[in-house]
């Protein structure tokens, strides 16, 4: 029972240059001074008298002998951190020794890449002024990487602003982790609770409650209501446009033909769906909950041809055809309301984190024009 109440602070890694100058306390100071101040600020935060964060900065470590040990220690911390907080000024940092890293990737660049590849959702950034940063090969590569991953953050000009934003970023990460943990814990076991109740339903009943859970979550999240003419379609505001998401469910494994054929190839009826949508609404994008797992090969077979974009992600599989602009999202392991809502949320988070929302909207607009043309021809 004691282990249940054990309190372990979240591990935060603070990544940045140490010697670069930043305006702090009314004068130019080394970034290392600001890093120590942020560490003190975050470790001073408490919840019910208990410490919430434990911050790692390499200045507190004993000097390691040899560049490999210093580099590896930073990489290990980047991998293990619950929250990776980057003070970004465009400087890639120490490149290590040339015999170890011939491409001269800076240590800040390497730390970020490792953290981002491990878990993009744990990465937070505070953007400091980039003026005065040398245009070296490693710095330019770092800047291109940050831009390509669409890693954005609060823009600050002084150390005081950076401390305030670090505090906000840490609290936001804490709340996000708490929500994610509640979703996982609430899911429980698939042989008990709501998952068992859903499993007792026939295909039609399971399809109905799963689709309803998706629609309700999307409507609640954005303060909307399902389309009156088609209660399985919700229009969401996304990247400056309204996009129709048509929700459905495959109520068993994708290897079960009877369950798979209930959904079939819904994009063949897009012209009918669009006839019920308001002008200017893009799509539809097909959001399909699967009771069990889903693979890229299964998703492409459902699409009907293999030459398409297929992305395997934690939420399931995203499939897009860049010719006909068909888009289908297969959400894996939607066993009950909690897991269904969690998978929809993970998909929406992925869109925002990877900048895929803009591409999805562009394809959805094209798909609407294609579907409207088909409707006119028919």
Explained architecture:
The chain has twelve helices and 15 strands. It is α/β, with parallel strands linked by helices. The protein folds into two domains: 2-181, Rossmann fold, CATH 3.40.50.450; 190-377, no CATH class. Strands 10-11-12-15-14-13 form a six-stranded mixed β-sheet, sandwiched between helices. Strand 13 (309-313) and strand 14 (316-320) form a beta hairpin. Helix 11 (337-354) packs across helix 12 (356-377). It is elongated, with a radius of gyration of 24 Å. The N and C termini lie far apart (67 Å). Mean pLDDT is 84; it is low at 1-5, 63-67 and 98-103.
What's this entry about, in short?
The chain is an alpha/beta fold and 378 residues long. The protein has helices at residues 31-43, 67-80, 107-118, 137-148, 159-187, 193-200, 203-222, 257-263, 270-274, 296-303, 337-354, 356-377; strands at residues 10-15, 21-24, 27-30, 46-47, 50-51, 53-56, 83-88, 123-127, 154-155, 233-238, 241-250, 282-290, 309-313, 316-320, 327-331.
Beta-strand percentage range: 15-25%
Q: Overall mean pLDDT score?
A: 84
Structural class: alpha/beta
> How many structural domains does the protein architecture include?
2
């Amino acid at each position: 029972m004691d282990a249940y109440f054990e309190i372990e602070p979240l591990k935060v890694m603070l990544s940045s240059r140490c010697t670069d100058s930043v305006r702090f306390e009314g004068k130019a100071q080394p970034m290392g001074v600001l890093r120590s101040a942020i560490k003190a600020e975050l470790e001073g935060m408490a919840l019910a008298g208990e410490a919430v964060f434990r911050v790692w900065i390499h200045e507190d470590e004993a000097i390691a002998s040899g560049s490999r040990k210093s580099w590896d220690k930073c990489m290990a911390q980047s991998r293990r951190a619950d929250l990776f907080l980057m003070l970004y000024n465009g400087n890639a940092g120490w490149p290590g020794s040339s015999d170890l890293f011939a491409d001269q990737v800076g240590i800040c660049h390497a730390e970020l890449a490792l953290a981002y590849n491990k878990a993009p959702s744990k990465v937070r950034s505070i953007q400091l002024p980039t003026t005065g940063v040398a245009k070296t090969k490693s710095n330019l590569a770092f800047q291109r990487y940050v831009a390509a991953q669409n890693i954005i953050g609060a823009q600050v000009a002084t150390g005081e602003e950076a401390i305030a934003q670090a505090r906000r970023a840490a609290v936001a990460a804490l709340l996000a982790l708490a929500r994610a943990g509640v979703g996982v814990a609430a899911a429980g076991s698939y042989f008990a609770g709501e998952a068992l109740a859903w499993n007792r339903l026939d295909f039609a009943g399971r399809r109905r409650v799963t689709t309803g859970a998706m629609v309700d979550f999307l409507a609640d999240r954005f303060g909307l209501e399902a389309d009156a003419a088609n209660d399985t379609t919700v229009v969401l505001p996304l990247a400056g446009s309204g996009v129709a998401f048509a929700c459905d469910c495959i109520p068993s494994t994708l290897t079960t033909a009877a369950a798979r054929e209930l959904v079939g190839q819904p994009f063949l009826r897009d012209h009918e769906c669009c006839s019920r949508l308001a002008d200017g609404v893009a799509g539809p994008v097909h959001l399909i909950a699967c009771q069990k797992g889903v693979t890229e090969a299964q998703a492409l077979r459902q699409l009907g041809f293999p030459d398409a974009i297929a992305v395997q992600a934690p939420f399931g599989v995203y499939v897009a055809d860049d010719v006909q602009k068909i888009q289908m999202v297969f959400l894996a392991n939607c066993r009950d309301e909690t897991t269904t809502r969690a998978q929809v949320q993970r998909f929406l988070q992925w869109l925002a984190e990877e900048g895929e929302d803009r591409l999805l909207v562009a394809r959805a607009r094209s798909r609407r024009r294609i579907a409207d043309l088909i409707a006119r021809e028919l």
